[in-house]
Amino acid sequence: MRKLLDTWLDLFERHEVLTRASAIAFQALTAAVVLVLLGLAVLGEIGRQDLWFAHIAPQIKARVLPGVYDGVDATVRRIFSADSAPLLAFAAVFTIWEMSGAVRCCMGAFTRIYEVREHRSTWLRTPLSYVLATALTAAFVAAALLVMALGGLVHGGWYVPFAVVRWALAIGLLALAFGLIVRFAPARPRAKRWASIGTGLVVFAWTVQSLIFGWYVSSVANFKTAVGSLAVLLVVITYFYVASIVLLVGIELDEQLRKRSARP
Predict the structure, then answer these.
(1) Contact yes or no for 162/154 (Cβ under 8 A)
(2) What's the 3-state SS for 11-73?
(3) How far is Cα 235 from Cα 224, in angstroms, rounded to an integer?
(4) What is the pLDDT of residue 194?
(5) In contact, 184 and 78? CB cutoff 8 Å
(6) 131 pLDDT band (50/70/90 cuts)?
(7) Of 1, 16, 24, 37, nearest in space to 206 by CA
(8) Is 223 helix (H, G, I), strand (E, B) or coil?
(9) Residues 48, 148: Cα–Cα separation, whole Å
(10) Quick check: pTM over 0.85?
(11) Are 219 and 147 in contact (CB under 8 A)?
(12) Is residue 184 within 8 Å of 128, Cβ to Cβ?
């Protein structure tokens, strides 16, 4: 255990895991704000505003101060009442722009973890980051629609099988998008096998983390107090920071497994 601890402490220091996780978390946080705007615009475009009024809004209203909820609800209603096509186009472009920043942070972090030299120029990295950001944005939006917008289509005995299929497809889309990032974000593309293992580790860890975070928000956190209202931002930032650390630890673990398998 001492040797294992020393190994990981050395990896964290040598590859600047916490510093690079902070950069990824900051970019992901700003991208998430615009991604929520894009998701609301998509709901307005497909005519599923009822998801907000019947499912999402009551959950928020029960956990925040009335003034906070009124502001959020007024903003969402304004989005639904606006012309959705220009808003959708703006939100999509802005989301890809912000998401590309997070992808470029991942590029640097992955290259550092894999201990290879960055030989790609800015003219190559930037377009690649936009392509990967587009895939990631599409996967997030499609996964959210599968889980939320299609939830009420099937009832009765087929509800559970349909739900399993929806969640499996949503996780598959996220795994595919992050598989592209794990494989093509580093300076030296990873083999399909190791990109798949790294993606599996990250998606599994993120799923566990999200379940824990969801339980904390729904069962423990109280955002109706003064301290709780101030803690909202801290909780969200912590979630993204932990998610970024989980991402880099998963990639780091995948790289150590690859090196171990290559030894005689």
Answers:
(1) yes
(2) HHHHCCHHHHHHHHHHHHHHHHHHHHHHHHHHHHHCCCCHHHHHHHHHHHHCCECHHHHHHHH
(3) 14
(4) 56
(5) no
(6) very high
(7) 24
(8) strand
(9) 10
(10) no
(11) no
(12) yes
DSSP string computed for 142-165: HHHIIIIITTTS--GGGHHHHHHH
Our CA dihedral for 85, 87, 88, 91, rounded to 10 degrees, sits at: 160
Write the CB contacts of 146 (distance below 8 Å, at least 6 apart in sequence). Answer: 166, 167, 169, 170, 173
Burial class (CB in 10 A: 0-12, 13-18, 19+), 69: middle
Mean pLDDT (whole number) for 203-214:
82
Within 10 A of 189 (CB to CB), how many other CB atoms are there?
Answer: 11
Half-sphere exposure of 137 (CA within 13 A, CB side): 30
The per-residue pLDDT for range 173-208, each reduced to its tens digit, is 888 888 888 888 887 777 666 556 767 777 788 888
Angle at 19 between CA 215 and CA 118, to 5 degrees: 120
Q: Tell me the pLDDT tens digit for each residue of 240-255.
A: 998 899 888 888 888 8
pLDDT for 217 equals 76
